Structures
1.
Amino acid sequence: MIKVVFLGPPGAGKGTQAVRIAEKYNVPHISTGDILRAAVKEGTELGQLAKSYMDRGELVPDEVIIGIIRERLSQPDIRERGFILDGFPRTLKQAEALDQLLSELNMPLDRVIYLNVDDEEIVKRLLARGRADDTEEVIRNRLKVYREQTAPLIDYYAEKCLLAEIYGVGEIDEITKKIEEALGLGE
Ligand code: ADP
């Protein structure tokens, strides 16, 4: 059972690393970005709402995201296998809601993996990725939103003694190894 949050700026490699750990250890991977992009693609009501925020690099309102996570975390695979949260929480309000949800479920977090990457490298990576919301202007706004709303979670989790900081530049395999070490998953 693994119960972990992946934290870090856009383009830090949270998704890449989360998928690797999820597959290797058979843990459900919950990416709010993936959930929202799927909704946009399907053209659901959630998708239409989310798109207006994502296109500008803004955060989707807390209540909406918290509702999605509440529903997902209540499914039976989570109780059996745990979870890797990728892209949630992104605000203090979301972090507090997560604490509340996990205490209701009686499933405390094991660790928060903070993937740290320099700003220059982030912009380079996102421009190369070329997703719909990866234009220079939108990237700049996502970084600003990250600094203002998400970066405070680093201290929030450090104070709870849950934070493991990992430098996210280098070989993908090496970074995966460091994450496994931080989670106490040895070879
Ligand atoms: P990145 O790869 O840049 O970290 P994500 O795929 O995680 O991006 O998210 C893309 C967009 O989806 C965000 O810019 C935001 O608009 C929206 N989003 C994803 N997760 C959340 C969340 N927890 N709260 C609010 N908005 C979110």
2.
Amino acid sequence: MEPLPLMTVQQHILEEQRRHHPDASGEFSWLLSGITLASKIIADQVRRAGLVDVLGSVGQVNVQGETQQKLDVLANQALRLCLGRRGNVGIMASEENAEPIVVPRDRQHGKYVVIFDPLDGSSNIDVNVSVGTIFSILRRAPDPEGKRDPLVDVLQAGVKQVAAGYVVYGSSTMLVYTAGNGVASFTLDPAIGAFIISNPRMTMPAKGNIYSVNAANSDSFPEPYQQFLAKLRSGEAGRTYSSRYIGSLVADFHRTLIKGGIFLYPPTRHYPQGKLRLLYEANPIAFLAEQAGGIASDGRGRIMEIPPTSLHQRCPLLVGSRTEMKLLMEMLASA
Ligand code: AHG
Ligand code: MN
Ligand code: MN
């Protein structure tokens, strides 16, 4: 067997930049290395979760009214520390913080905004099931006076993302990333502590045979969603489907990206606007999906075109292969 070229994520980003943005300063790869450093710290904590005192909740609720797990807090700290010292991140925003985080020393000239879900799939931490980190990177204009409301920089539509990705802490730790020129994946080699390339061009199959949804909510989905799922189950859609639902968006999407099919979190009785968060869940996932040849919608239009109005806003998320997504969108449109 041919050995894989030992290409690290750093090298890959630098080479991509040289190809697509020959005048780039290299600052962007420095920023990304803040994310990979934080993700190694998080991966280390996740791997040892049963050995050190990081399981369970901290007895607080976050801005979403959800119980914060110890690992949510640790992961948030790791990202804030690693990204806050890059010198080019002016503003950060996190699921775990009510307001955007201003980096005082880089508020005026920091070229980037990074928005993240430090630990996605918290309910799976205590049961040794895959969790992840999701990030979205936006550009920002200089703010020489340092007076601009940080929310102005944060509330940009998904089409403005310059890069996005996730790290899945699964049976291996994998980084999946796009900067708008396709999607590449890297696996953390624990022996050398580096993310090494696994697939330089990930593409989502045009159709799949898995659907992924929290079926316990299905009675409260709007009618067309129920009809769509019934169609997949009955074989009317032309193939036999299986269902898989992990309950960590990162892990459910990772499978959908590789195997195709569809993941959906529609509006429910409990979450009439959908449960997932636009800025740090739906947008980065949508960017990856589109870059891999798939589709991401909120049931009305492209996720990445939704104009954000608040940091923690929710939206329905329907994402997956073109075939399943087109069928669902047709059924929603004609309902
Ligand atoms: P988080 O742990 O960051 O709060 O995200 C949880 C999300 C997402 O990962 C997953 O797709 C969804 O919640 C699962 O929700 P249900 O338990 O309602 O199915
Ligand atoms: Mn999440
Ligand atoms: Mn989270």
